[in-house]
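[Discussion] Sanity-checking designs against the backbone

I'm trying to build intuition for which residues belong where. Below is a structure token string of 441 positions. I'd appreciate it if someone posts a full sequence so I can compare it with mine line by line.
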């Protein structure tokens, strides 16, 4: 089991990398948004959202399963990675073809949007190399990945700035977006495949493939549901209110979603230890999950309060008066962070308990809620309605759904406890004091 110091070091490196990345993305992204203006910026983000609807297909929901298998059987990493990459590439090709066909037949998607979608969809098969990150996550080795990815982020950001200064057309930003997806994942993959494991040890095992697909298909469908209710709002908004409204919404959503890295880092760093606790003691295992909920809720509530309170100021500083309409959208969308965090943490529990089909059910509930709410709210309120629909669907999927099933009601109670702010703070304080006393003894 990894020490607390190791976990904190891992979180620190991930945080440093993501804060640096967040700063670059926000500043350069705002520069691009100002240059493209809401209409073209909306067209770009409409295409990104459309392709994102298919992004769960190449992922196959394998990441959490791979982390679990690497923790339990690290000696099989060569076969696991080789098999996962092969499966994800094959399904990535299917996803790419499906995205292009869907764009060509969808009402409200013109030739220009279809062409942009086709370019962005080229990245779908290549996301297969992201499965190697599951190995580093299982070993709590974020330092290497953070260092390896940073040069690619800097290069892509510099190219975007040059394109703005050169007043490049929209299509060049589309190609750079596709290139970024590949470069950021390629360097860690290269290091792992050629140095840490070696290409000769990478192999495809059909029995492992069968086992992975048998367990992962509910997670893939769950991921598709999540992708749909995370991005369907922008696609529906573009079809019902126009691309300019998507530009306003996307500007706000990026400022809200940029904080999602915090729960993702904490969950990925604590998850391997929580999985190992399950072997030792059920009580310690459940206490570890509860503590994870407490930490995530406190941090995310604090961030949401700040972002909501300063939404107008943040939009004005980054995007300028042209995007003033985005402030109201951001003030609502910022609260999604809390429920995204709870959803991420409980997804690890679903995988550990092998309840992936139930995880799929709650994702479908979120998707249905999102579609119905968008249909009701977008025609009247535009981007503000879409942001409210997104928030309510996250609450439905990440919180309410667990109360509806007997097997998941205990995790709902744990989440409810974490949302009680004052007892939350007191409980976390008690746990920290107990840990301090244990070290002294």
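Best answer:
Here's mine. Compare freely.
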């Amino acid at each position: 089991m990894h020490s607390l110091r190791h976990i904190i070091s891992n979180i620190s490196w991930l945080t440093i990398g993501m804060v640096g990345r967040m700063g670059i993305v926000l500043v350069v992204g705002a520069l691009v948004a100002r240059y493209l203006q809401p209409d073209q910026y909306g067209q770009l983000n409409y295409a990104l959202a459309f392709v994102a609807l298919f992004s769960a297909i190449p992922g196959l929901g394998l990441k959490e399963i791979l982390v679990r298998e690497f923790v339990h059987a690290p000696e099989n990493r060569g076969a696991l990675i080789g098999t996962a990459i092969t499966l994800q590439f094959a399904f990535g090709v299917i996803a790419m073809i499906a995205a292009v066909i869907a764009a060509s037949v969808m009402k409200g998607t013109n030739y220009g949007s279809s062409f942009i979608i086709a370019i962005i969809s080229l990245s779908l098969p290549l996301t297969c190399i992201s499965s190697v990150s599951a190995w580093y996550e299982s070993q709590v080795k974020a330092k290497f990945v953070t260092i390896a990815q940073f040069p690619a982020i800097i290069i892509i950001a510099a190219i975007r700035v040059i394109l703005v200064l050169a007043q490049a057309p929209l299509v060049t930003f589309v190609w750079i977006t596709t290139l970024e997806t590949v470069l950021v994942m390629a360097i860690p993959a290269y290091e792992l495949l050629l140095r840490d494991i070696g290409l000769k040890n990478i192999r495809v095992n059909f029995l492992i493939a069968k086992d992975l697909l048998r367990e992962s298909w509910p997670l893939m469908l769950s991921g598709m549901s999540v992708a749909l209710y995370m991005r369907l709002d922008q696609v529906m908004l573009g079809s019902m209110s126009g691309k300019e409204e998507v530009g306003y919404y996307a500007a706000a959503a990026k400022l809200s979603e940029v904080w999602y890295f915090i729960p993702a880092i904490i969950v990925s760093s604590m998850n391997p230890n929580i999985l190992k606790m399950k072997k030792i003691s059920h009580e310690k295992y459940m206490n570890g999950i509860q503590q994870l909920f407490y930490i995530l809720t406190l941090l995310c509530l604090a961030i949401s309060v700040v972002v909501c309170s300063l939404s107008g100021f943040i939009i004005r500083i980054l995007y300028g008066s042209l995007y003033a309409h985005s402030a109201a959208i951001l003030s609502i969308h910022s609260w999604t962070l809390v429920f995204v965090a709870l959803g991420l943490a409980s997804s690890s529990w679903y995988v550990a308990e092998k309840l992936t089909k139930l995880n799929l059910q709650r994702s479908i509930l979120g998707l249905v809620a999102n579609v119905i709410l968008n249909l009701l709210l977008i025609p009247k309120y535009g981007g503000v309605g879409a942001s409210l629909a997104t928030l309510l669907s996250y609450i439905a999927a990440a919180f309410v759904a667990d109360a509806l099933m007997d097997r998941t009601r205990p995790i709902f109670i744990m989440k409810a406890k974490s949302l009680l702010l004052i007892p939350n703070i007191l409980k976390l304080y008690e746990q920290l004091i107990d840990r301090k006393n244990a070290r002294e003894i």
